[in-house]
Design a protein that fits this description.
The protein is α/β, with parallel strands linked by helices and 438 residues long. It is 43% helix and 17% strand. The site of pyridoxal-5'-phosphate (PLP) has 15 residues, from helix 12. Pyridoxal-5'-phosphate binds at residues 112, 114, 146, 255-261, 309-310, 364, 389-390.
Length: 438
C-alpha cells in the first residue's frame, strides 16, 4: 500500500541531523557547507500503478510520482497546475532499430531537457511566494548557454519573482542569446564583458553581499536544487508508459554531466518503476566510468568536448547516487554501467545513425547511443532507450558538418530569432550591484 506522506523531510548529505521541509530545501537550494539535500525516505509506489501506467495521462503519472516528495506543502490543485504548465509538450519514444529507441526530451519551450526541472522549480517557488511567507524573490543566475534559457522561460511571468541572468558577451550561441534576451517581463539579461567564470564570480559575490541582501532576497536556480532534480524522474515513467507491451528487460542510457538526470531515473527505479539497468554515457569527462572500473573516485578538471553540457569534471549529483545505494559499491555496480567516448567516436555515431536509420542525433544523444550499443552487444536480451537531451539544431555547426545536410529549424526557434534582443551591458561587479540596488 502507498504510504501517506503528509510531510517529506529533506536531510543534508553532510549531516543527517539537519532536516528541513520541502519548501526550505527549494528556497535554500543547498544545505549548510554546500551540501546537497536528499529525501529522508524514498517512497514505494503501489505495483498496480505501474501495471496501469498507460491508462493515465502524463500529468496524472507525474502527480502520483512527485506527491510524496512535496507532501501537503503544495495542495493537490496547486501541484496539478504546476505540472500542467511544466509538462505542456510531448516526450515521445522514437524507435531507431529493433532493440533500440530514443526518448526525445527536447520538445520543451527552449528545446532543452532542462525545461522540465526549471519549469517545476519556478512553479514551486512561485507557489511559495504567493502563499505569502517569503516576500519578493530575485533569482540570480550565471549561464554559459543553455541553463539560462530554460530558467528564464520557466520563470517568465511568475508573480513575485524577478530573474536576473548574467551571460558572457559573444560567448553563447546566437540562438541561446536570443532565448535569454527576448523575453522581457520579469526577466532581465545582463551581458557581461568577460567570460563565464567572471559571470559566476559576480553572482557568488552578490550572494555574500549583505547590502544587496538587505534590499533583495536572492535565490539561485541551481541544478542541484531538489525542485530541479526530482521532476526529471518523470521522463522514465513517460517512456515506460509507451513501452508497456514490451516484455524484454529494459535499460536506459543517459548522457551524463552532473548526473542529475540519471540519478532521478535510478530514484524512479527505487520507487518501483520496472527498469533493469542504467548506463551513464560520458564524453571524455569520465570520472564515473573510471570509478566503476577501479572503485576509485578521482575527479579531474573538465576538458572541452562537442557535447559540452557534459563537460563536468566532478559531477555534483554523484553523491546522491551513492546515497541511493547506501554507499555500497557492489549493488551500485550491478545496476549501473558506464562508458566514455571521444568526439571522433561521437561524430562517427551521428553519421552512422543518420545513414543507417535516417535519424539525426545531437552530440549528447550520440554519446548515449554509443553507450547503449556497447551494452547491448554484450547483453542482447535487453531493449534499450537512450535519452536525446537536446535538439540537434542547438549544435547546428557540429551536426551539419557531420551529416553534410541542413538541419531543419523548428518554428519556435525561427520565432525567437526574429525577436529583438534586449540586454544591459555590464563590465564589473560595481555595475551588477548598482543594478540590483535600484
Ligand atoms: C545538462 C545536460 C546534460 C547532462 O545532464 P546531467 O543531469 O547534468 O547529467 C546532457 N545533455 C544536455 C543537452 C544537457 O543540457
Amino acid at each position: 500500500m502507498g504510504k501517506n506522506y503528509t510531510q517529506m523531510k529533506y536531510i543534508s548529505l553532510n549531516d543527517k541531523n539537519h532536516k528541513v521541509s520541502f519548501e526550505d530545501a527549494v528556497v535554500r537550494g543547498l544545505a549548510p557547507g554546500k551540501a546537497l539535500y536528499f529525501p529522508e525516505e524514498i517512497p514505494n509506489l503501489p505495483k498496480g500503478f505501474f501495471q496501469n501506467l498507460n491508462k493515465h495521462s502524463k500529468e496524472e503519472i507525474a502527480l502520483e510520482a512527485i506527491k510524496p516528495f512535496v507532501g501537503d506543502e503544495i495542495n493537490k490543485n496547486g501541484l496539478q497546475r504546476i505540472l500542467k504548465k511544466t509538462l505542456d509538450f510531448e516526450f515521445p519514444v522514437v524507435p531507431i532499430s529493433e532493440n533500440t529507441g530514443t526518448l526525445e526530451l527536447f520538445h520543451g519551450p527552449t528545446l532543452a531537457f532542462k525545461d522540465v526541472g526549471a519549469g517545476f522549480m519556478a512553479g514551486c517557488l512561485g507557489h511559495f511566494v504567493k502563499k505569502g511567507n517569503l516576500g519578493k524573490i530575485t533569482v540570480l543566475v550565471a549561464t554559459s548557454g543553455d541553463t539560462g534559457g530554460a530558467v528564464a522561460k520557466g520563470f517568465l511571468g511568475v508573480e513575485g519573482i524577478d530573474v536576473v541572468i548574467l551571460y558572457p558577451k559573444g560567448k553563447v550561441s546566437e540562438i541561446q542569446e536570443k532565448q535569454l534576451t527576448t523575453l522581457g517581463q520579469n526577466i532581465t539579461a545582463l551581458e557581461v564583458n568577460g567570460n563565464f567564470d567572471d559571470c559566476q564570480d559576480m553572482v557568488k559575490k552578490a550572494f555574500s553581499d549583505s547590502e544587496i541582501g538587505e534590499k533583495r532576497q536572492l535565490t539561485s536556480a541551481n541544478s542541484i536544487n531538489v525542485a530541479r532534480w526530482l521532476p526529471q524522474m518523470f521522463y522514465y515513467f513517460f517512456a515506460y508508459k509507451q513501452l508497456a507491451e514490451k516484455e524484454q528487460k529494459l535499460v536506459f542510457s543517459v548522457p551524463s554531466g552532473n548526473f542529475g538526470n540519471i540519478c532521478a531515473g535510478m530514484l524512479a527505479k527505487k520507487m518501483g518503476l520496472p527498469i533493469d539497468h542504467f548506463i551513464a554515457s560520458n564524453n571524455e569527462n569520465n570520472v564515473v566510468t573510471r570509478y566503476l572500473k577501479s572503485q576509485k573516485y578521482l575527479s579531474k578538471p573538465s576538458v572541452q568536448t562537442i557535447s559540452n553540457a557534459m563537460d563536468v569534471g566532478n559531477p555534483s549529483n554523484f553523491v546522491r547516487i551513492l546515497e541511493l545505494f547506501n554507499n555500497e559499491f557492489k549493488p551500485l555496480s550491478n545496476q549501473l554501467s558506464s562508458y566514455s567516448y571521444s568526439d571522433e567516436e561521437t561524430r562517427k555515431a551521428i553519421k552512422k545513425v543518420k545513414e543507417k536509420y535516417d535519424y539525426v542525433m545531437d552530440p549528447h544523444g550520440a554519446v548515449g547511443y554509443l553507450g547503449l550499443q556497447e551494452f547491448l552487444a554484450e547483453n542482447p536480451d535487453y531493449y534499450g532507450i537512450f535519452l536525446e537531451t537536446a535538439h540537434p539544431v542547438k549544435f547546428l555547426e557540429t551536426v551539419e558538418k557531420v551529416i553534410s545536410e541542413k538541419v531543419e529549424i523548428p518554428v519556435s526557434i525561427k520565432e525567437v530569432m526574429n525577436k529583438e534582443k534586449k540586454s544591459i551591458e555590464i563590465s564589473d561587479y560595481a555595475e551588477l550591484k548598482e543594478f540590483l540596488m535600484q
